[in-house]
Amino acid sequence: MSQIDRITIINANPPKTTDVNTELQWLGSTLGLFGERDKDSSCFRIFVAVFNASNKNKSVSSNEIAHSCELARGTVIHHLNKLQDAGLIIHKTNRYYLSGTSMEDSMKQIENEMSRMFALLESVARNIDKKMGK
Fold first, then answer.
1. How many Å apart are CA 117 and CA 5, to the nearest integer?
2. In the chain, fewer beta carbons within 10 Å around the N or the C end?
Protein backbone atom coordinates (compact mmCIF):
# COMPACT_ATOMS: atom_id res chain seq x y z
CA MET A 1 0.00 0.00 0.00
CA SER A 2 1.20 3.49 -0.73
CA GLN A 3 1.62 5.86 2.16
CA ILE A 4 -1.34 8.05 2.99
CA ASP A 5 -0.50 11.76 3.02
CA ARG A 6 -3.62 13.07 4.72
CA ILE A 7 -6.33 11.46 6.79
CA THR A 8 -9.46 13.44 7.65
CA ILE A 9 -12.38 11.99 9.54
CA ILE A 10 -15.59 13.96 9.92
CA ASN A 11 -18.07 12.68 12.46
CA ALA A 12 -21.30 12.10 10.55
CA ASN A 13 -24.27 9.87 11.05
CA PRO A 14 -24.49 7.03 8.53
CA PRO A 15 -27.11 7.40 5.81
CA LYS A 16 -30.63 6.16 6.43
CA THR A 17 -30.92 4.73 2.93
CA THR A 18 -28.65 1.89 1.94
CA ASP A 19 -28.19 2.28 -1.80
CA VAL A 20 -24.58 2.09 -2.95
CA ASN A 21 -24.32 5.67 -4.24
CA THR A 22 -25.62 7.14 -0.96
CA GLU A 23 -23.22 4.99 1.04
CA LEU A 24 -20.27 5.89 -1.22
CA GLN A 25 -21.20 9.57 -0.90
CA TRP A 26 -21.33 9.25 2.90
CA LEU A 27 -18.03 7.38 3.01
CA GLY A 28 -16.24 10.03 0.95
CA SER A 29 -17.86 12.89 2.86
CA THR A 30 -16.86 11.32 6.17
CA LEU A 31 -13.29 11.16 4.87
CA GLY A 32 -13.52 14.86 4.03
CA LEU A 33 -13.33 14.32 0.27
CA PHE A 34 -16.72 15.38 -1.04
CA GLY A 35 -17.30 18.71 0.62
CA GLU A 36 -19.42 21.75 -0.05
CA ARG A 37 -16.83 23.16 -2.45
CA ASP A 38 -17.40 20.21 -4.81
CA LYS A 39 -20.57 21.79 -6.21
CA ASP A 40 -20.86 19.53 -9.26
CA SER A 41 -19.86 16.38 -7.34
CA SER A 42 -16.85 15.97 -9.61
CA CYS A 43 -14.69 14.30 -6.94
CA PHE A 44 -17.50 11.89 -6.14
CA ARG A 45 -18.07 11.10 -9.83
CA ILE A 46 -14.35 10.48 -10.33
CA PHE A 47 -14.23 8.22 -7.29
CA VAL A 48 -17.22 6.26 -8.55
CA ALA A 49 -15.52 5.83 -11.94
CA VAL A 50 -12.43 4.32 -10.27
CA PHE A 51 -14.59 2.26 -7.90
CA ASN A 52 -16.70 0.84 -10.75
CA ALA A 53 -13.63 -0.05 -12.81
CA SER A 54 -12.01 -1.74 -9.80
CA ASN A 55 -15.16 -3.77 -9.17
CA LYS A 56 -14.70 -5.18 -12.67
CA ASN A 57 -11.02 -5.90 -11.89
CA LYS A 58 -10.02 -3.12 -14.26
CA SER A 59 -8.21 0.17 -13.99
CA VAL A 60 -8.97 3.50 -15.56
CA SER A 61 -6.85 6.35 -16.94
CA SER A 62 -7.36 10.03 -16.21
CA ASN A 63 -8.35 10.55 -19.86
CA GLU A 64 -10.99 7.82 -19.64
CA ILE A 65 -12.36 9.37 -16.44
CA ALA A 66 -12.40 12.85 -17.98
CA HIS A 67 -14.32 11.54 -20.97
CA SER A 68 -16.84 9.44 -19.01
CA CYS A 69 -17.46 12.13 -16.37
CA GLU A 70 -17.42 14.98 -18.90
CA LEU A 71 -14.79 16.88 -16.91
CA ALA A 72 -11.59 18.66 -17.82
CA ARG A 73 -8.54 16.45 -17.41
CA GLY A 74 -7.01 19.03 -15.02
CA THR A 75 -10.05 18.73 -12.75
CA VAL A 76 -9.79 14.95 -12.89
CA ILE A 77 -6.07 14.97 -12.01
CA HIS A 78 -6.70 17.37 -9.11
CA HIS A 79 -9.33 15.09 -7.59
CA LEU A 80 -7.39 11.90 -8.32
CA ASN A 81 -4.47 13.36 -6.37
CA LYS A 82 -6.83 14.13 -3.48
CA LEU A 83 -8.21 10.59 -3.51
CA GLN A 84 -4.70 9.17 -3.73
CA ASP A 85 -3.47 11.35 -0.82
CA ALA A 86 -6.39 10.01 1.26
CA GLY A 87 -5.39 6.42 0.49
CA LEU A 88 -8.55 5.48 -1.41
CA ILE A 89 -6.96 4.96 -4.80
CA ILE A 90 -3.54 4.11 -6.16
CA HIS A 91 -1.81 5.14 -9.36
CA LYS A 92 0.34 2.74 -11.39
CA THR A 93 1.57 3.20 -14.93
CA ASN A 94 -0.97 5.90 -15.83
CA ARG A 95 -3.86 3.83 -14.46
CA TYR A 96 -5.96 4.25 -11.32
CA TYR A 97 -7.28 1.53 -9.04
CA LEU A 98 -9.09 1.27 -5.73
CA SER A 99 -6.36 0.96 -3.07
CA GLY A 100 -7.68 -2.35 -1.73
CA THR A 101 -9.22 -5.43 -3.23
CA SER A 102 -12.61 -4.16 -2.03
CA MET A 103 -14.04 -1.09 -0.34
CA GLU A 104 -13.80 -2.82 3.03
CA ASP A 105 -10.16 -3.73 2.36
CA SER A 106 -9.45 -0.10 1.42
CA MET A 107 -10.96 1.06 4.73
CA LYS A 108 -8.88 -1.53 6.62
CA GLN A 109 -5.72 -0.21 4.94
CA ILE A 110 -6.61 3.35 5.94
CA GLU A 111 -7.33 2.15 9.49
CA ASN A 112 -3.94 0.41 9.65
CA GLU A 113 -2.18 3.55 8.47
CA MET A 114 -4.07 5.60 11.08
CA SER A 115 -3.05 3.13 13.79
CA ARG A 116 0.57 3.35 12.67
CA MET A 117 0.46 7.15 12.76
CA PHE A 118 -1.23 7.25 16.19
CA ALA A 119 1.43 4.91 17.59
CA LEU A 120 4.08 7.33 16.32
CA LEU A 121 2.19 10.32 17.79
CA GLU A 122 1.93 8.55 21.15
CA SER A 123 5.65 7.75 21.12
CA VAL A 124 6.60 11.36 20.48
CA ALA A 125 4.09 12.54 23.13
CA ARG A 126 5.63 10.10 25.62
CA ASN A 127 9.09 11.50 24.87
CA ILE A 128 7.81 15.05 25.38
CA ASP A 129 6.25 14.06 28.71
CA LYS A 130 9.53 12.45 29.85
CA LYS A 131 11.44 15.60 28.96
CA MET A 132 8.93 17.65 30.93
CA GLY A 133 9.22 15.36 33.98
CA LYS A 134 5.82 13.73 33.68
1. 11
2. C
